What we know:
Elements: E1 12-23, E2 26-37, E3 41-45, H1 52-59, E4 67-72, E5 75-76, H2 82-88, E6 90-93, H3 105-110, H4 131-148, H5 163-176, E7 181-185, H6 193-210, E8 213-217, H7 221-224, E9 230-235, E10 238-243, H8 245-248, H9 252-259
Parallel strand pairs: 3-8, 3-9, 6-7, 7-8
Antiparallel strand pairs: 1-2, 1-4, 4-5, 9-10
Helix pairs in contact: 4-5
Amino acid sequence: MPMLNEGKMDDIILATRNLTKRFGDLVAVDKVNMDVKRGTFSVLFGPNGAGKTTWVNVVTGYLKKDGGRVLFNGRDISGLSASETYRLGLARSFQIPKIFPRLTVLENILIAEDENPGESFFKAPIRASWEKIEKETVERAFKILEIVGLEDRWDALGGELSGGDAKLLDVGKALMSGAKMLLIDEPIAGVSPSLAHTILQRLRSIMEMQGVTILIIEHRLDIALRYVDYAYAMAGGRIIAEGEPSKVIRAPEVIESYLGEKYRIR
């Protein structure tokens, strides 16, 4: 896997260069150049059909690109599959959380750990070879549950969680996998304003305490913009504005394409 050699990229964890994705005659992602700074909490927003989710799917290997490059943590990952990008630490959290409803919250976290010697055909009968590692893994899982605010629900079934808690569990699974960056699709969709604030506060804390870079796709900007460091606005498959959130929402092209008069600063 080739290393990136194009200027100083130490502060950039994720970059796309002329990234393009077509569906027939439709150009869903149109030569997008985008840099995400390491250790930040950012939001990508835009109208329906802007290309946001398609961009995320191409970046994470769920869709094949038609042009351009994807660079993560100093490496070109353009041709990698979703499972390969996940193992490198780029984790996609879906709008509908991918949890196992019949497993407990703790079990859902534990299965995100790739290396479990107790599951080895040869090591399983030799308890001494995996007992200490398993104990340490469980302790780490409880620590992550505390980080995402689900430590009191460790024995609840995944299917019993509210929509907001299920999304936090999905984030916890990504942290358990050792993710360096989280791409989260609409973390506060369909939840009450109070819970929306709680979710974003926890994501902000995760970013600050764990050093994880977080990029969310979100429509509820009245809440989300209070918590993020940086904003990207997308329309027609292109990034039309980026920068400090308060400045991005003032950009005329953003107001025209998405936000409407209620966001115009008078």
